Structures are given as C-alpha cells and as structure tokens.
Amino acid sequence: MSGPSRVERLPRVTGYDAVRAAGRNFERFSSLHQGDEDVRDYRQLPLEADPPLHSALRAFLVPFFSKGSLAPHQHHIDADARALIAPLAHSELELVRGVGLPLVVRTIARLLDREDDIKEWASWGPSVWGDHDGRRDGTALLGFLERAVDEGAAGRGGRLFNLLAATPINGMVLSREEQIGVGSLLLAGGRDTVMNLISGIAWMLAMHPTHANPLRSDAALRATFIEETLRLTTPLGLMERIDRGDTAGNPATSPHVGLDFASANHDPATFTCPAELRLDRPARTPHVAFGIGPHACVGAPLARMEAHAVLGALLDAAPNGWQIVHCEAQYRTADGREVPASFQRLVIAAR
Predict the structure, then answer these.
(1) Domain extents for the chain?
(2) How high is the pLDDT of residue 250?
(3) Other Cβ atoms closer than 10 A to 177
(4) Is 204:339 a contact under the CB 8 Å cutoff?
C-alpha cells in the first residue's frame, strides 16, 4: 500500500469555521499552483487560478451547469441510472465500474456534445489518470485533450471546445494550454468524485436500512440523505492552497497548506453528532463537500442530479433493501468511526 500523498502530508487548515474562512480568502490562500505533478504539466482551470482569470473562467462555465442547461439531460440520466441498476433485482451489482463509471461518462459526454468519445473515456477506468500497475499516467487524457482542442479550433469539437476556441476571456481567447486546462478539469473533476458519491449512497443505505422506507415516500428526505452522504464521505476531502500569509507574499516561496473539508464536515462544534447520518439534520448549516467561496464546485448541480437518479433507481430495484457483498475502499476516521472516502470496488445484493 502506498503512503500518504504529497498533498496529504501538508499542514492543514481544519475545522468548519477556519476552512470556510480560508476558502473565501483567496488573497491569502491562493490557488495559483499546479497539482498532480506526476501526471500533468499544465494547470487545471479555473481550479488552479485566482481572480480575475478564475472569475472570468467560472462565469464562462456556469451556464453549462445551470438549471436550464441541465434540464434536457434529466431524463437521460434517470434512464441510464435505471438501466444500469435494474440487474440488482436479480443479481449482484458492482457500483464503481458497473454503475458510476458508465453513468458519469455518458452524462458528461452528452453535456459536452462528445458522445462519440464515450468508449474512449470509459477505457481510462474510474480515474482519468488510469491505473497502470499502480502508477498514474496522464498520457491518454492529454492526447484526447490536444485532439479536442484542435477540433474546437476547426469548429467541430463539440459545445465546450468550440466555445473555448472562440470565446474571449478577459478580452483574449484562451491559449492552447489554457483550453487543455479547462477541459482537463471538467473531465477529471466530475468523474471519480461523483463515482465515490454514487458508491457512498449505496454504502450508506446498506449501513442504515431503516432509512429506506422513509426515502421511498418523501422526496425532501432524499435530498437530505444525499447531503448527509456528501457531508459524511466528503469525496474530495483535501484541497491544496498557497498560504501567502497576512502580507500576501510571493506564491513561489509561500508555504502550501491543505484545506481539510473532511474535518470541517465532521466538526462537532458545528454538527451535532457529526458521525451520524441524520435525516432530521437542519439544512441551515451547509456542508462544504463541494468546497466554499469562489472555488465552490461549479458542477455541483449535475452531481446532485446524478445522485438523485441513482438513489431513486436503487430504491426501485431493491424494495427490501440491499446488503454489501464486497467492499474495497479507503477510509478516513471521523469521531472514532471509519467512513469510506473513496471506493475501488463495491458489490451489493438485494435482500
């Protein structure tokens, strides 16, 4: 088993109030850095940028994930979830590669008008960085992105890449590397994190089977259940920042820190009994599983739409609930309990 990653070894900002304050304070906690040095040599945008570039890129991307833009995709997502989960009625079902991967890949392909790429994207596996004997590799993703950016320049790259090639951002069309960075974030950011949420939903209901009947009859409770699953599992638990200090120092020499979203979501000073999944938890104190401040996840509405589709399909396919047959996951300890942070494999069977 590999040890902690470089980001996991960073000093951390912890606790709900401190993480929220740091997430909003981009002047001190800068995002102007490049992560994943082992698999890429470009910044993912707008994630690894500060205003004003970040603000302009976010404004460009928000319409892709607006209610109006996502509405036409709702019936496709629901139908895909039902078809992928239907076998649970009579056989075991694997959630990571069997449900999460195809659902996420098909959804983002439709959203970006790149449905011909579904097979290629799925071949990378749960992570866009692949898994080559335990070694990450960004070659396949970069090769696709270079091709897609070229197609966008020729007006045949699909919705996103055509617009990236033609839309001025802060008065200038993005460079080739910047276009690659935007595409990389959309393909990577909404992939394994959403897949972990999907598996987390199945895992949580297997652990709390008495919640199933209330969820069948109350749509509002389904939303609460999904938000509690997000809070408890926090699929992206740590985000790197550059701490410029109170003097807004040079990012090249300032220390790096991790914003610990998982600790914020399990802060007992903010959440009563934080290790418990509670359907009566007040919504007035929002979790930070999608981040906070300027860098809050722009794709959160789509992730929630996919989560609702999966939860509904699971409840329909297994009227008596389900049990876990096999689980391979990485766990984090919260309040003395182990909670899955990421799933490699999850097999369930109807009761």
Answers:
(1) 7-350
(2) 63
(3) 12
(4) no
CA distance 128 to 301: 21
User: Which tokens hold the place of 241?
Assistant: 């920042």
Q: Are 340 and 237 in contact (CB under 8 A)?
A: no
Opening angle at CA 198, ends 195 and 202, nearest 5: 140
Cβ atoms of 38 and 284 within 8 Å: the answer is no
The CA-atom distances, in angstroms, between 26 and each of 175, 242, 245 are 24, 9, 11
Alpha carbons 235 and 231: distance in angstroms, whole number: 9
Amino acid in the structure at residue 187: L
**Distant-in-sequence, close-in-space partners of 162: CB < 8 Å, separation ≥ 6:** 152, 155, 156
Q: Quick: pLDDT tens for 20-42.
A: 999 999 999 999 999 999 999 99
Measure the CA–CA gap between 246 and 264, rounded to whole angstroms.
22
Query: Which tokens go with 264?
Result: 């914020």
Q: Going by C-beta distance under 8 Å and a sequence separation of 6 or more, which residues neighbour residue 81? A: 99, 103, 306, 309, 310, 312, 313
CB 251 within 8 A of CB 202: no
pTM of the model: 0.94
pLDDT at 336 (0 to 100): 72
- Burial class from Cβ neighbours inside 10 Å (0-12, 13-18, 19+) for residue 55 reads middle
Neighbours of 219 (CB within 10 A): 10
Residues in the chain where the model's pLDDT stays below 70: 1-4, 131-132, 246-253, 335
Token couple for 236: 């992206």
Helix (H, G, I), strand (E, B) or coil at 249: coil
Residue 135: DSSP 8-state: B
Cβ–Cβ < 8 Å for 19, 13: yes
Supply the DSSP symbol for 72.
Answer: G
Q: Which residues, including other chains, have CB under 8 Å from residue 253's CB and lie 6 or more apart?
A: none
Cβ atoms of 274 and 335 within 8 Å: the answer is yes
**Are the CB atoms for 348 and 320 separated by under 8 Å?**
no
Placement of tokens 């020729």 in the chain? 154
pLDDT (0 to 100) of residue 311: 98
The CATH number of 7-350 is: 1.10.630.10
